[in-house]
Structure formats: structure tokens, C-alpha cells
Amino acid sequence: MTTTESKDLGAEELRARAAEALTRARARSDALTDAVDDEDLIRQHSKLMSPLVWDLAHIGSQEELWLVRDVGGREPLRPDIDDIYDAFQHARADRPALPLLSPAEARSYVREVRAKAFDVLERVPLGGRRLTEQAFAFGMVTQHEQQHDETMLATHQLRQGDPVLHAPEPPPARSGTLPAEVLVPGGAFTMGTSAEPWALDNERPAHEIAVDAYWMDTTPVTSGAYAGFLDSGGYDDERWWSPAGWAYRTENGITAPRFWKREQDGWWRTRFGVYERITAAEPVVHVSFFEAEAYAAWAGRRLPTEAEWEKAARFDPASGRSRRFPWGDEEPGAEHANLGQRHLRPAPAGAYPAGASPTGVHQLIGDVWEWTSTDLHGYPGFAAFPYQEYSEVFFGPEYKVLRGGSFGTDAAAIRGTFRNWDYPIRRQIFAGFRTARDAGPGEG
Asked: Which CATH superfamily is domain 3-158 in?
């Protein structure tokens, strides 16, 4: 095989990978929007969220801007709607008042954009520009769509009415009795990446960072453990809360995780239209950073830093190397993690032994996004690409980093280096946490 043929084969593999990822994302977008009628699509189910029909057309607008116009050099399809679907121009609470595309118009628009994007994918050279190298722009657009799919899933959780989404139950716990915590050794490791083809700007560049030895919860904090905090009066005891957290709790009357309600026989919750008793073995979900922080203080522990989380998720002490995922470098499979909306809830602690890290930490990928104690910032050598608004404008103390993905995160939009962020008050997202503590003298 000649060098040229080898390059062509590589390009075709990249095209096939990008096409599959784009197709999978669109199938999910269609499923989330087809599950409800037009009235539900245009309704704003919460001031925190956009109408579902806005998310759908926004997905198409971003795809048009990056793949059709920029990468493909094609004429604009709908320049008249650019402003309407610019997320930085209009707050979510204001979007229902905009002249949005109707459900039929939005579906027609995203289909037309996708057809042109696939034509671009077939024809554009995958190289020569950073945007097209390794099909990066197609990966970026795929991840954007999957992120909005998870946002739409969160909107489904907020809607009122009968259940419209259905999925099989996650697997049961398979690991037997697990230790409560795992010691992660101190020392330097490689954080971030310079090699992951579809990694976003805030994941770059790879750099060495050292952390002291620490103990990390083996699994995310479960609903049963969190109920212990509630039942002990933790929400009424200012000792466990930071000043900002206590102000948030008291001013908003927060008494439990979002969607939880105390009944005479214990704690219940609403989950995608189903009212059910909480499952004690599942990771707790729909808690804010402030609630996670208060639980950790009550338990005599703390939230991990972002670097501690990533070391637990990627570092292999035997080889001294940082992996792509806790289990290795291969893409996530159904045996590794609860991802991709295969299930509509977190899996019980210990459900994915094949996904454990070399140090024995479980469920670092999938199930629930995990709050860390770290503010969002750029790594040393950070360079915004392809636009500042992707992450740089969010740097600072207002946003806390979340790691690991949730049951609503697709495999295309998560890896050991992937960084998410949100305001510390956010509770509608699929967020939970695990705790850590410093190792003692002579440990690690």
C-alpha cells in the first residue's frame, strides 16, 4: 500500500466515524423531540430551560455555521435566524418570546442542514486546517448536539405530565462488597490532553501536575447515604454549609435534593413523570454544589479537586501513564459505564466493575456528573479554539467544574479529560458527587 492510499484510507475511516457520530446524535435529538406533541415542544417547562423546539433549531444553526458555512464554504441557508439561535444573545427565560421556528419548520431546517453537512463531509479534505484535521469540526458539532440532547433530557425531567420516555433498568450491583474509599497515591501525573483528536480547547494542553496522596470514595455518594444527612437535620444545621451555601439554602427554602419529597414512609422522588421511592443504592442526583459541599462537611470529608478527580480516573500506578478512561484507552462499552440514555437513572453503586480505575475507584464515568471543588480555569498554555465563547468566557470563580458525565451523556461527549461546568446553585442537571479526604502521614 502506498503512502497516499494509506492516507486516503485514514480519511475514509475518519469520515465514517464522523458520519456515525452525527447520525447517532440526530437519532437521539429526534427521539427526544418526537416523544412529545407540538404544544409541549414550544412550551417553556422551566425558566431554567429553553423550549425544546429552540434547542432543536439551535442544534441545526450551529451545524450550519460550522460545517456548512465555515468548513464547507457554502452559502447560508437561514442567515435571518442566526441571532435568534445565538445562545449568547438571549437568556433562556427570554427565548419563548422570540420568533422561533415552528416544530415543522425546525425539523425541516435541521434535515436540510444535515444533508448539506454530509455532502461537506464527503468532499472536504480532512487536513490543511485545524478545524478539519482529524475531522475535528464534525466531532465538535457532534459533541454540541449531544450536549443539547442531555439538556433536552433535563427539560423532560422538568416537564409535567405522564411519562413519555422509557428505557430498561440499569444493571444491578455486580461488585460485591466494595471498600468505602480508595487510597490514590501522591505524585505527579499527566492532566489534560494534547493528543485526543476531538478534545475541546479547555481540555488542552497536556501538562504535568502533582497532588498529595488522598482517599477517594469508591463510588459516588448514594441516595441512601444522602438521606442520612437529611434525616440527621443536615439542611437545618448551618455548621455544615459555607456562607454562600447557607444563604442559597435559606433564601430558596431548599430542604432536599430537587424532585425529592418526604412521605410518611420515607423519601420519594419524581423521575421523568414517575413518582417513586428513592433507590438507596443509586448515586444521589439533582444536588447543587452547595449541597454536595455541605454533605461532605457533615461526613467529615471534602469534595475532591479537579486534579484529584482526574488522577483517580486516569492514572495507572503500574505504568505511570494517564489513560483515556479509567478502564483503559478503548471507547466506552455497555459493560464500562452508564451512558447514552440507555437507562433513565443512575445505576446502583458497584454496577460496572469493568469500568473501575487501576486504583479501584468505580463509576467515574457515567451515572452522575460529579461536582469538584475547583473553579473553571484554563490550563497552562491554554489557547481558545475555535472561538472564545466555547469556554474562555466562563473562566473564573462563578463556575465549578463537574467531571465524568451522567447517564444522559453520550460516549462521544465524555472522556477522562472532559470538563463540564455550571453555577454552584444548579440542581436540574444530572449532578451528584463523591467525597475525598487527605491521606495521613505515611499513607501513599
From this structure: dinb family like domain (1.20.120.450)
